[in-house]
Design brief:
This protein has one helix spanning 2-7; strands spanning 16-26, 30-35, 38-51, 56-59, 63-70, 73-84, 89-99, 111-119, 134-138, 146-154. The protein is mainly beta. The protein is globular.
C-alpha cells in the first residue's frame, strides 16, 4: 500500500501556511437572471478589513463577486483591491467553486474553495504575493453584512 501512495506523489503533498483573514462587507446582491450559462448574480464588495502575520489593512469599496449558478454548482469570480496599513495597494482576483452536489460516496456535501491571485507592486515588501499560489475558504466566524475568508499560501 505504501508503494501505491508513493507512486501517487503523497510524499510530496503540498503544505499550506496561513496568510490572512479577510472580513469582507457586501452590498445588496442583484441578479441578471437566467442566461445561457446559468443564473448570473452580482454581489458588490463594499469594504472590510484584513489581517495576517505579514500584512493588514482595509478592503476597498468598488469590487464585486460575479457568480454563475447552475444546478448545484456556482462559479465565482471576485475582483477587488486592498490597501495595506502602510499605504500599498494590492489587486485581487479570486476564482472559486461553491457546490452542494453529493460527494464521491453519494452523501450530501457542501464545498466552497477559491484561489486568489494577488498583484502587488514589484518594488514593495508585498511582492512575495505575486509569486505563489493561494487558497481560501470561508471561516465559521461571521461578520454582519458580509463574509469572513481565510487565506493560505501553498508552500
Amino acid at each position: 500500500m505504501l508503494t501505491m501512495l508513493t507512486a501517487w506523489g503523497q510524499e510530496n503533498a503540498p503544505q499550506t501556511e496561513f496568510v490572512m483573514q479577510l472580513k469582507v462587507t457586501l452590498g445588496q446582491a442583484y441578479t441578471v437572471g437566467e442566461t445561457p450559462h446559468g443564473k448570473r448574480m452580482v454581489i458588490p464588495i463594499t469594504g472590510g478589513t484584513f489581517e495576517g502575520p505579514l500584512l493588514r489593512g482595509e478592503i476597498l469599496n468598488g469590487g464585486a463577486d460575479w457568480q454563475l449558478a447552475k444546478d448545484n454548482r456556482t462559479e465565482l469570480e471576485a475582483i477587488y483591491s486592498i490597501r495595506t496599513n502602510d499605504g500599498v495597494y494590492i489587486h485581487i482576483r479570486n476564482r472559486g467553486i461553491i457546490s452542494g452536489a453529493p460527494d464521491e460516496h453519494g452523501n450530501p456535501s457542501f464545498y466552497f474553495k477559491a484561489a486568489p491571485q494577488f498583484e502587488a507592486p514589484e518594488n514593495s515588501k508585498y511582492a512575495w504575493l505575486n509569486n505563489a499560489l493561494f487558497l481560501c475558504a470561508p471561516s465559521a466566524q461571521q461578520v454582519e453584512g458580509g463574509i469572513v475568508l481565510n487565506v493560505w499560501k501553498v508552500k
